[in-house]
């Protein structure tokens, strides 16, 4: 019985140490006041993460769209950019995601987030990782 409890505690410790989400917002930055958000599509992204992010932002109540930077609507107030990291272990899965939010006019960085899930066992599907990051950065409207 003690061995099972110790094994469970060790597994929980390892799981929490293997993944993390961190966010940072610039002083005075309130992302809730930016209603129109544009998610910049990365040319190397063949998995449409930009569309998933825009869908999540719309679910949070924002007017969000995605595409190449040249297609950004003139009334966009904030731009979301991202870097994704994938791994392959008999299955391809997202292990890391860096997201930055900047003012569309001044190009000033307003907030940034980093999520890292190094293994498929403790990792999450891209939709779940994006959901977690967007909800930490953008308050529901």
Q: In terms of topology, how is this protein built?
A:
Blueprint: H1 2-18, E1 20-25, E2 36-40, H2 49-59, E3 63-67, E4 78-88, E5 92-103, E6 109-116, H3 126-137
Parallel strand pairs: 2-3, 2-4
Antiparallel strand pairs: 1-6, 4-5, 5-6
Helix pairs in contact: 2-3
Which terms summarize this structure?
alpha/beta; globular; disordered N terminus; 33% strand; six-stranded mixed beta sheet; Double Stranded RNA Binding Domain; 141 residues
Could you list the spans in which at least 5 consecutive residues all have pLDDT below 50?
A: 1-17
Annotated CATH architecture: 2-Layer Sandwich
What is the N-to-C succession of helices and strands?
A: HEEHEEEEH
Q: What is the first-to-last residue Cα distance?
A: 48 Å
Looking at the chains present, what oligomeric state does this protein adopt?
A: single chain
Overall average residue pLDDT: 85
Count of distinct strands: 6
Order of strands in the sheet with most strands:
1-6-5-4-2-3
Question: Biggest β-sheet: count, sense, barrel?
Answer: 6 strands, mixed
Number of domains: 1
The CATH first-level class comes to Alpha Beta
Kindly report the CATH topology: Double Stranded RNA Binding Domain
Overall helicity: 25-40%
Sheet-strand content, in percent, reads 25-35%
Overall SS class: alpha/beta
Q: Nearest-angstrom radius of gyration?
A: 17 Å
Q: What is the overall shape?
A: globular
């Amino acid at each position: 019985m003690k061995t099972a409890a110790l094994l469970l505690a060790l597994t929980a410790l390892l799981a929490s140490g293997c993944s993390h989400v961190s966010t940072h917002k610039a002083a005075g930055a309130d992302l809730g006041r930016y209603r129109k958000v544009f998610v910049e599509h990365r040319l190397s992204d063949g998995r449409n993460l930009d569309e998933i992010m825009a869908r999540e932002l719309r679910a949070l109540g924002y007017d969000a769209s995605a595409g190449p930077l040249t297609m950004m609507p003139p009334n966009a107030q904030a731009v979301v950019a991202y870097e994704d990291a994938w791994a392959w272990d008999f299955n391809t899965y997202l292990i890391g995601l860096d997201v930055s939010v900047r003012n569309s006019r001044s190009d000033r960085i307003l907030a940034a987030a980093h999520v890292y899930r190094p293994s498929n066992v403790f990792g999450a599907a891209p939709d779940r990782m994006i959901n977690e990051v967007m909800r930490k950065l953008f308050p529901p409207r």
